[in-house]
Specification:
- The protein is of the alpha+beta class and 563 residues long.
- Among the domains are: 233 residues, Immunoglobulins (Immunoglobulin-like); 148 residues, no CATH class.
- 38% of the residues lie in helices and 20% in strands.
- The strands form four sheets. The chain has a five-stranded mixed beta sheet, covered by helices on one side. Strands 12, 13, 15, 16 and 17 form a five-stranded antiparallel beta sheet that branches. The protein has a four-stranded antiparallel beta sheet with strand order 2-9-4-7, with no helix packed on it.
- The protein starts with a helix and ends in a 14-residue tail after the last helix.
- 32% of the residues are buried.
- Keywords: Membrane, Transmembrane, Transmembrane helix.
């Protein structure tokens, strides 16, 4: 027995095709065969109550994108015809930038018969002899929706995406479901089934485990980055069109990992707010060497309507005011639920206090070791962050928090230990590398660059216990290579210039307070020093005041002394 939505659509297709034939032959109603009249009667009966809705009709061709506008209170019928007999099932995918659109098997969306999302898709198995099919598009939020869609055909040997769905509402669900926060982006999807021909029963999903069942399938997870700092709709549409099917995603996308049928169908990535990313899943049948694509899904890890995580006002924590600010921000974020603005204000205050304490430890006490340790730790933190920003950070062993933090800490601590013997060189190197990186972060406030995630990924891992599961790939484009060049040039030139300038000076600047004490003792004991006979500062100020306010007496005639 046919499922009701399939039977309904088959009935609709039959009526539409027969009506088109009657129109071309100008046959009257009385001359219609009784079977046709039955089709029309059932069609009107089923559609009763929705005929008053305005409906447009858009004709699709296989593998050809079609831009569609869905106005308020309007239903758009998406139709594909002339389906070849070797096609066993077809998928319709529809993408908008940030507005929800509804895809439905029927004119009136219902639970299990429709899906509302920014990136939505439906899969329809075909019955023998069927050459035409249609779906319906609606705008669910009361506003018009504009997007792009495409219909892709698959044969009976291709895997069926989402055919073993037990989690989501659709019976067969080829969609990839995405959720993001400031730390991570998670995608989930339903398992697929092996292909089957028209009219045959689909293979059972979980009754057997073997090479002749769906357990032989493999899932390739792909990622595609949109151009940096480009939030335009045209950029998204162009990118979606370039990775919508299996072949184009393999050509332009990057394969992140491959899941077996025994793995959980969930993958976690690092969120990159403001950076457009397209995720897709390609299911492969290694026995038949065939493959199918799930519906690609995109995200900017930010909201186009919210002011809290808006795409135009993104949060960026640029190392606070140094060592104290960073530690304090991590501490209050993990232990309190204060508002972000309050945390940022407190971080700035503590950063200033930490900076003053570090300066005073050198100015008042002449503590070289404290300066060497703090400055060395900051350089070690930056070096360790750079190491794990490379593909080293995605090595499976570093998914373990214990292995990661032990390795990270060893690098951080090893740097100040190395520079204990050369404190001046360590301080200059830190100033050159960290100062140049601060310039990169400053530029990032106006022009997006992926280099900000060198430290931001570590901060995310500090604050989120589940971030170890996320893949931390970021896009590297022209602006990133330019900023790397700027970083290297500024860092190297700063280090060389400071080393040249400080070559004849002490290995570390002496404490100004201790030098002042030594100078004061020298003036007290050295009677030959002219400064020894200089009156105190209060005495000099009082004498000067008397000169300005006192009355000067006339000296009369002055005769110079000859002897």
């Amino acid at each position: 027995m046919l499922r009701w939505p399939v039977a309904f659509e088959y009935l609709s297709n039959c009526v539409a095709s027969e009506c088109s034939r009657l129109g071309s032959r100008n046959v009257g109603l009385k001359k219609m065969p009784s079977s046709w009249l039955m089709y029309i009667f059932l069609y009107v009966l089923v559609c009763d109550g929705v005929v008053a809705q305005v409906e447009n009709r858009v004709v699709f061709l296989f593998n050809t994108f079609q831009n569609v506008n869905v106005n308020e209170n309007e239903t758009v019928q998406a139709v594909v015809s002339r389906i070849p007999p070797e096609v066993a099932f077809i998928t319709l995918q529809f993408h908008t930038q940030h507005s929800n659109a509804t895809l439905s098997y029927t004119r009136m969306p219902g639970l299990g018969l429709s899906l509302t999302a920014v990136d939505s898709g439906l899969l329809s198995p075909l019955i023998p002899g069927q050459t035409k099919f249609s779906w319906f598009l609606l705008a669910p939020d009361g506003n018009s929706v504009a997007g792009t869609g495409v219909i892709l055909p698959y044969t009976s040997s291709d895997p069926v995406p989402g055919a073993c769905n037990l989690e989501f509402d659709l019976d067969i669900d080829p969609n990839v479901y995405l959720h993001y926060n400031i730390f991570e982006t998670t995608i989930r999807f339903a398992p697929a089934n092996i292909g089957y021909s028209r009219g045959s029963n689909p293979p059972a999903c979980d009754t057997e485990v073997g090479e002749n069942t769906r357990w032989r399938l493999r899932y390739d997870i792909y990622q595609y980055f949109l151009p940096e700092s480009d939030l335009s709709e045209q950029s998204l549409i162009t990118s979606i069109q370039s990775v919508a099917n299996v072949q184009t995603m393999r050509e332009h996308g990057k394969r992140i990992m491959t899941l077996s049928s025994n793995d959980k169908t969930e993958v976690v990535f690092s969120s990159i707010p403001g950076q457009g990313v397209i995720y897709s899943v390609i299911v492969r049948d290694p026995v038949l060497n065939t493959s199918s694509s799930y519906i690609p899904v995109h995200t900017y890890a930010c909201s186009f309507s919210s002011t809290l995580d808006g795409c135009d006002t993104l949060e960026l924590f640029c190392m606070g005011f140094g060592f104290a600010a960073f530690l304090f921000f991590v501490l209050i974020t993990r232990t309190t639920k204060l508002d972000y603005d309050i945390r940022l204000t407190l971080t700035a205050v503590i950063g200033v206090v930490g900076g003053v304490i570090l300066v005073m430890s050198w100015w008042r006490f002449g503590s070289v070791m404290s300066c060497v340790v703090v400055v060395g730790l900051m350089l070690g933190f930056l070096i360790s962050s750079i190491v794990f920003f490379t593909p080293v950070g995605d090595i499976q062993v570093f998914r373990s928090n214990v292995v990661f933090w032990v390795t990270f800490s060893c690098i951080v601590v090893g740097v100040p230990l190395f520079f204990v013997r050369w404190p001046r060189e360590g301080n200059i190197t830190t100033c050159g590398v960290a100062g140049a990186y601060a310039v990169v972060l400053a530029v990032n406030a106006y022009i997006y660059t992926s280099l900000s995630y060198i430290t931001l990924n570590i901060l995310k891992r500090f604050l989120n216990d589940n971030f170890s599961k996320a893949f931390t790939d970021v896009p590297f484009q022209d602006i990133d290579f330019i900023m790397i060049t700027v970083w290297v040039v500024l860092g190297v030139s700063g280090i060389v210039l400071q080393l040249y300038r400080e070559r004849t000076r002490p290995f570390f600047p002496p404490s100004p307070y201790l030098m002042w004490l030594q100078e004061r003792e020298r003036r007290k004991t050295n009677v030959l020093d002219p400064s020894h006979h200089t009156s105190s500062l209060p005495s000099r100020l009082l004498a000067r005041a008397r000169q300005l306010t006192g009355r000067r007496e006339s000296a009369g005639e002055c005769t110079p002394l000859l002897l």
